[in-house]
Amino acid sequence: MQSVSSFPWASDCAGEEKRVGTRTVFVGNHPISVTEDYIAQRFCDNRIVSSKYTLWNFLPKNLFEQFRRIANFYFLIIFLVQVTVDTPTSPVTSGLPLFFVITVTAIKQGYEDWLRHRADNEVNKRNVYIIENAKRVRKESEKIKVGDVVEVQADETFPCDLILLSSCTSDGTCYVTTASLDGESNCKTHYAVRDTIALCTAESIDTLRAAIECEQPQPDLYKFVGRISIYSNTLEAVARSLGPENLLLKGATLKNTKKIYGVAVYTGMETKMALNYQGKSQKRSAVEKSINLFLIVYLSILLTKAATCTILKYVWQNIPYNDEPWYNQKTQKERDTLKVLKMFTDFLSFMVLFNFIIPVSMYVTVEMQKFLGSFFISWDKDFYDEEINEGALVNTSDLNEELGQVDYVFTDKTGTLTENSMEFIECCIDGHKYKGVTQETDGLSQTDGPLTYFDKADKNREELFLRALCLCHTVEIKVNDAVDGATESAELTYVASSPDEIALVKGAKKYGFTFLGTQNGHMRIENQRQEIEEYELLHTLNFDSVRRRMSVIVQNQEGGILLFCKGADSAIFPRVHNHDIESTKAHVERTSMDGYRTLCVAFKEIPPDDYKRIDRQLVEAKMALHEREEKLEMIFDDIETNMNLLGATAVEDKLQDQAAETIEALHAAGLKVWVLTGDKMETAKSTCYACRLFQTSTELLELTTKTIDESERKEDRLHELLIEYRKKLLHEFPKSTRSLKKAWTEQQEYGLIIDGSTLSLILNSNHDSSLNNYKSIFVQICMKCTAVLCCRMAPLQKAQIVRMVKNLKGSPITLSIGDGANDVSMILESHVGIGIKGKEGRQASRNSDYSVPKFKHLKKLLLGHGHLYYVRIAHLVQYFFYKNLCFILPQFLYQFFCGFSQQPLYDAAYLTMYNICFTSLPILAYSLLEQHINIDTLTSDPRLYMKISGNAMLQWGPFLYWTFLAAFEGTVFFFGTYFLFQNASLEENAKVYGNWTFGTIVFTILVFTVTLKLALDTRFWTWINHFVIWGSLAFYVFFSFFWGGIIWPFLKQQRMYFVFAQMLSSISTWLAIVLLIFVSLFPEILLIVLKNVRRRSARRNLSCKKASDSLSARPSVRPLLLRTFSDESNML
């Protein structure tokens, strides 16, 4: 890299800062002559590679990844044992299913990677124009190098990350949409530094000699730090700072601008788009954890069976006359073999014989179920929103079933519970109230005429307040979509990234001050006298979530320098010196309690000498490449002091449609809902009442700055409040109460309110006692409250709250839902992240697992789809273990009747086809289509959600039930067949059934029983269910006839020849099969009959209860939650 001394602007602008982690780029790849000691840096090319595999590494790399899965590796070991050791079954029996699973997965992953290759080629081979030697040269996008000057025309996407040099507009601006990066469809304005604005031709671009020093590539789309040094013919450098407003990101699209020139600073896999496509951390569902536990149990069963048979084999052979038969006598070599080695070999052989107890195909079926099942969410018309013309989106199908296991819901307020549709309601200027309404709905708003105002304050203060609203913002004017040249039109369109700012600018217009836009760095407004005022924009002190305010420094036409600042009351009041601010405080508190969003406005005059110092500090900080944000924050903090308070504004953010009903349903389902917001407490509390998070009967416990500041020693006061609240709640909810969900409706409800400052005090407390630890007491209080409101939260604090609940005993399942960039941290932290497709961009939606248009859609997503997905996949998992135990138990029992000789009961073809063909499709169809309760009933009756909470269907109880059921049926299969046919059951040709006929009868009963068991479990029949269930049985019969009806030349032994046809030619065999199937299914049939009787009885009782309730209706604490629900016995 170029040494520091080689750049004359380095020491002047940045002092002694170090340049570790920066890169130097020469515009047009023309090194500056003063940098003779420059060593060229190596940058990556502009190829985008999103694919995982190449033609050469696909096979080894994919196999390595697949065999990292325990089940696949286990079956590979079994296959290798079969190949190397004399085992009772052919290697085909385990090799073919493993090959099928590996092949299907490889084809799926290979196809997905081929699509990525194709997409990469479309981008890499696209033609672009580079400026070389004052000419436009056409090249493929992948051949762009760092330092090349690229020409991009309207509606084209940027091929790499570019620093804007110039555009076809006179002010060097261009409009860009970043919808493909963050989902924001609004046009954003980007700027060229003023020294390169005039370079609008290839010839002039080629004369530019400049060096750019910037940070190394990093993925944050909204951060960029750099500086450009422009050299004149005398080699004197002019340095300008570069920020995100100068950077054009790869993947963004140029709009409303004919042409721009930019220099490539990041290419290929170093662009921000490529860095953002790195995979998120893998989230594991509770079902996956249950599967792993069950696999351990079944592996233990397998090892126990193999060890038992190995021991009993040698015990049996030690009995006189029970040695191996004459045709299987040991050779001398075998006799010389160590007995321990022989026992180990036998153990491995029994492992191979019983290995099908581990369901290898379950993983493929589960993956297919999750992938295909996710489409039902995307296809659900109830999730479609006409306003944005979009529906739900599934970003992570691996967590479908987790939607049915949520314990805690963490929700943002603005844009999630509310519409983020801002209406300017009123303002207060020096205590005088001004009221009017102007609505902003989508960040793009038409202006309208003035409003007659009332209750006038001092004229100068009033005008100063309205000027502040017109100047302190980042709103831009869009005139009839025209960018080049002026357009004569009185209709103005305001564009901004935040709807709040448009509402405030429009509010100022209502009172006679109209913002007309910015031209050549001058902001123009029209005052009440219809005079045009111009202010030079000197500096913008941008808003951030830590400062919670923004400011502008402007110079008026008389030369006076003013600072206008707006922000949250907690960020403004400590920085003003007005003696009389009580009236404004009262206004803020009143409007906050009405549920309005409030902002305070202040200003101060800056003396010229002070401004020179401030300007120098700001320029130096903006030129810094390291810790630029920290340096700017310190300067902002110094500037925004000793201001004069002008007034406050009130903007209404309407509650979303059905938000209250959704929260009520979530409460009824037993979920705890926490609101995490950055708004002030009064506004957030009012919203919580409006959306029924808090009821009128709810007793609120406050842990806020207001309650703690009552004492001089904050920590002592906090400790007192924590102990007091804990005693109150523990008295109300004793420890013996296992289910707080039931207690909520029977006892006094409590809600907790905490703000960010108090939360920091709790989390950073020095009290380390295990009993009196602030965090421990706080958690106990939270667990006893029906609802929690956390206000004044920073994004990091939101994630801390979610992490705190995630780490509680029992590991409750958390869900976070939000719409803005400040919600991304908690969305990523929670088990399930839901993004709202909001008006503040799509960062939350892009980083979420699921994305929905409105908060109300959360109700059906959890109570309907989540419930069904969990029930389906839980049944799928239990059924797989059940049918495999049914399959292998007769094989184990058979060893007691064959001298533990490792003789297989089933033919190799049946061993191979059982999981692949005979029983795979019915359970897949069931797991995709089953609705044991109608989805509309699930959505309308939230209490049904509680029936499956806590991973209820995959606990040890249900697992043992399925295991004992499989053991019972497997025993019936074997011993039923054995006892029915042991007493000279003869065919018509007087031949006794042999080994393979016996095994085929058992296998036939097995296939029909496990398939009909699934038919009995099915409540929602479709033509697909009928097709796969009866089709699978028909295929088994057809295959058996076909397999046994032909002499296959590649088989050494034709042991199944004509077995199936011969077997079914006997009426006694038919009767035995039907009888044993009925006996096996009898417990299930009996259970269904008992459930139907219970259901009818419950319905009669419910009818009587309804009649009784209608005669004597009594008021309740929560009438909306204690309404009559549909019969919960429908779960049966």
Automatic annotation (TrEMBL):
Stored InterPro entries: ATPase_P-typ_cyto_dom_N, ATPase_P-typ_P_site, ATPase_P-typ_TM_dom_sf, ATPase_P-typ_transduc_dom_A_sf, ATPase_P-type_domA, HAD-like_sf, HAD_sf, P-type_ATPase_IV
Reactions catalysed, semicolon-separated, are:
a 1,2-diacyl-sn-glycero-3-phospho-L-serine(out) + ATP + H2O = a 1,2-diacyl-sn-glycero-3-phospho-L-serine(in) + ADP + phosphate + H(+); a 1,2-diacyl-sn-glycero-3-phosphoethanolamine(out) + ATP + H2O = a 1,2-diacyl-sn-glycero-3-phosphoethanolamine(in) + ADP + phosphate + H(+); ATP + H2O + phospholipidSide 1 = ADP + phosphate + phospholipidSide 2
Top-level taxon? Eukaryota
Give GO terms: molecular function aspect only: ATP binding; ATP hydrolysis activity; ATPase-coupled intramembrane lipid transporter activity; magnesium ion binding
Q: What is its EC number?
A: 7.6.2.1
Q: Which top class of enzyme applies to this chain?
A: translocase
Q: According to its UniProt record, where is this protein located?
A: Cell membrane; Early endosome membrane; Endoplasmic reticulum membrane; Membrane
Please name the GO terms of the biological process aspect recorded for this protein, alphabetically: phospholipid translocation
Q: At which positions is ATP bound?
A: 412-414, 501, 543, 566, 597, 677-679, 792, 798, 822-823
Q: Which residues does the UniProt record annotate as the domain P-type ATPase A?
A: 124-271
Residue ranges of the P-type ATPase C-terminal domain? Answer: 846-1093
According to its UniProt record, where is this protein mainly located? membrane
Positions binding Mg(2+) in this chain are 412, 414, 819, 823
Q: Where is the active site?
A: 412
Which topology term describes how it sits in the membrane? Multi-pass membrane protein
Which GO cellular component terms, listed alphabetically, does the Swiss-Prot or TrEMBL entry include? early endosome membrane; endoplasmic reticulum membrane; plasma membrane; recycling endosome membrane
Alphabetically sorted, this entry's keywords are: ATP-binding, Cell membrane, Endoplasmic reticulum, Endosome, Lipid transport, Magnesium, Membrane, Metal-binding, Nucleotide-binding, Phosphoprotein, Translocase, Transmembrane, Transmembrane helix, Transport
Query: Where do transmembrane segments lie in this chain?
Result: 293-316, 347-366, 909-929, 959-981, 993-1015, 1027-1050, 1070-1090
Q: Where is the P-type ATPase N-terminal domain?
A: 40-94
> Per its Swiss-Prot or TrEMBL entry, what cofactor is needed?
Mg(2+)
Q: Which PANTHER family match?
A: PHOSPHOLIPID-TRANSPORTING ATPASE IG, PROBABLE PHOSPHOLIPID-TRANSPORTING ATPASE
User: Which proteins does it associate with, and in what oligomeric form?
Assistant: Component of a P4-ATPase flippase complex which consists of a catalytic alpha subunit ATP11C and an accessory beta subunit TMEM30A.
Q: Which family would the database say this protein is a member of?
A: Belongs to the cation transport ATPase (P-type) (TC 3.A.3) family. Type IV subfamily.
Question: What role does this protein play?
Answer: Catalytic component of a P4-ATPase flippase complex which catalyzes the hydrolysis of ATP coupled to the transport of aminophospholipids, phosphatidylserines (PS) and phosphatidylethanolamines (PE), from the outer to the inner leaflet of the plasma membrane. Major PS-flippase in immune cell subsets. In erythrocyte plasma membrane, it is required to maintain PS in the inner leaflet preventing its exposure on the surface.
Query: Any idea what this protein is called?
Result: Phospholipid-transporting ATPase
State the organism named in the record: Pipistrellus kuhlii
User: Which lineage is the organism of this entry classified under, starting from the top rank?
Assistant: Eukaryota, Metazoa, Chordata, Craniata, Vertebrata
